[in-house]
Amino acid sequence: MLMFIGFQMILIYEKYTHQTYDEFVIFNTSKNSVLGSKRGLSFTINYASDSINLQNKNFIKTYLTNTKSIYKTSQKNNHNIYYFNDKNLLIVDSLGVYQLKDFKPTYVLLTNSPTINLERLINTLHPELIIADASNYKSYVRLWQKTCKNHNIKFHYTVTNGAFVERFYK
Question: N or C: which end of the chain has fewer CB within 10 A?
Fold first, then answer.
């Protein structure tokens, strides 16, 4: 009986801890960019560079299981700016467009191998972190890593570092 009560207490505690934070996630998916957000126990895919049915993908199922979240919706966001809590993200895709007046992103996501001058981007936008997902050429990523290191900017590559997860506690 004590084991049963103990097990129930553990389940209640886990459910409570998963409700006490929100998350912003950039998944490691090849050839695609997928961004999601978890608020409480509901999960939403906010951006996907491809219109595939993501709800049935293994990486989404695994995330939902691990966070005990429920898939809510999928929103196709065609904008290159994404806001979550007090942070903002600029998505720089193959078009390489990032000239935005008076906008200072917290994070910059490089996707689909944009041909940009990363030093100029860093000097213009002053981001805290540069993120490269699995849709980029590896040769580009190596150059971007060196540039970030030279400018003391944090760099996150989803292929080697896994999904980028930013957690916000309530």
Answer: N
